[in-house]
Amino acid sequence: MTIQHKLPADIERTSMQIIEKELLQMGIEIPSENDAVVRRVIHTTADFEYARNLRFTPEAVAQGVTALQRGVTIVTDTNMALAGISKPSLMALGASAQCYMAEPMIAEKAKLQGTTRAVAAMRYAAQSCPQAIFAVGNAPTALLELCDLIEQKSLRPSLIVAVPVGFVNVVESKERLFAVCTKQGIPCIAAMGRKGGSTVAAAICNALLYMATGRLNPSARGWQG
Predict the structure, then answer these.
(1) Residue 75 CA from chain centroid, whole number
(2) What mean pLDDT comes out for the span 38-54?
(3) How many C-beta neighbours within 10 Å does residue 69 have?
(4) Which terminal Cβ of the chain has fewer Cβ within 10 Å, N or C?
(5) For 56, which DSSP code?
(6) What is the pLDDT of residue 89?
């Protein structure tokens, strides 16, 4: 066993080279417009299945990048996803990220409405920042609420990242959300099937942020190496 000692930027570049090599060995060719997002998710998870189960509406990545360059807000369904999103990149764009799930007012709204905090948080976000990028990595109920709001013409977000993980209503919520977004012409990036999670949601947001700021190369983010 040979241990490689590398600086942070070298580690990321070497990882991306390994990902590229293994994708070629698998015979997987990713459309160039989606490449940075797929590779960032594989880099985060070490799971090459995402090369097959990530699905994109037409120009979803480009539209997400453009929205971030306009300074839109990213709304997440977990504080874990919020913590993983690149704050320097947000700052460079004059953008922001929010998670309302743990807010006392959301817990109160959920209680009064007889629903989950995820649903209450999506309803609140739809009113306070309807053009946001919604990044959902945990709660299928959040995706189902977004579907309802879109169909009711109460919400038209800049992009939805639909990557909850789990077993109950996860597959169904993603399939419905992707179908609704396709019909309504709303950009969507979804991890079909059971896989996903807050780390995947953050990885997709970071790929978009790095593209929006011209920082796909880790050295441009101030990393050594």
Answers:
(1) 10
(2) 97
(3) 16
(4) N
(5) E
(6) 96
Structure tokens given for 154: 């109460």
Q: Quick check: helix, strand or coil at residue 224?
A: coil
- The pLDDT tens digits of the residues spanning 178-194 come to 999 999 999 999 999 99
Q: Which residues are catalytic?
A: 43
Among 192, 158, 188, 156, which residue's Cα sits nearest to residue 68? Answer: 158
Separation CA 178–CA 65 (nearest Å):
19
CA-to-CA dists, residue 154 to 14, 16, 63, 99, 165, angstroms:
45, 40, 20, 20, 26
- Where are the extended beta strands (E) located within the chain? 54-56, 73-76, 96-99, 133-136, 159-162, 188-191
Is the per-residue pLDDT at 224 higher than 70? no
Q: Record the pTM.
A: 0.95
225: its two tokens: 């190496």
